[in-house]
Amino acid sequence: MTRIQANLALLLAAAIWGGGFVAQSTAMNHVEANWFNALRFGLATLAVLPFAWMESRKATKKLSRGDIANFVIVGVFLFLAQTAQQFGLKTTTVTNASFLTGLYVIIVPVVSVLFLKYRPHWVIWPASLASVTGIFLLNGASLQSISPGDSLTILCAGFFAIQILMTGRIMQTVPRPLTLAAAQFAVTTLLCTGAASALEPITMSDIANGMPQILYGGLLSSGLAFSLQIIGQRYTTSSQAAIFMSSEALFGAMLGAYFLHETLPPIGYMGCGLLFLAMLAVEVVPEWHKTSRSMA
Question: What's the average model confidence in pLDDT over 109-116?
Fold first, then answer.
């Protein structure tokens, strides 16, 4: 897979996640937050497991205990991120949630520099700033008052940043993307089921009423999109991945406006343009520099 194909896979994942905000928000009319996550990640685990098994059969090297431990840790951070996001959607809008979740686009390169001593290509910094500004404009350049849901979603962005960074590092040494996907889904399912069983009531009618959202969240938003993320991150950097995945805010705002009648203000279209320019910059500028050096 080329870097362009990897970034397009990440863009598709972002589009699916944008629809996932709508599914997550409307699902809580029927199913509580932990049960929704438990059911959708359980479904995602079942969907990805056969492919992970086939991948494992073809592998030439067995997973070490350290690899398995890292897979579990990624799953724990996915659980923390999704739980914070799901509870946040109880008291914030889809548009606000998509903006605040997108803050990982700044957190990823900052954490890379501070803790991993990695220096991303210089274009990442203006592109990251343009992405966050674009996401902000999508919300009309105002978040009004910060609600508890907004605070939880900011926390979610931090957890997602760690999950993105760990995924990128793991894929550099352990080329088992579907195995990692299945592992993190299974860990999230177990943790969510434990929390839901202890804290939230549920009935079969609740599950039946929320089934469309559970199916979207399980098969598309979780199973397909997170697998695309992991596969894509094998062939691009974590910082570039964060830029492309931040476009989920664009799709979330658009779909929130269409399905939930949340208004996209005129200034929001400027945000769409900034997001597009940021994604174009991280794709074109590094390649242009490579071409210039090879011709020199």
Answer: 81
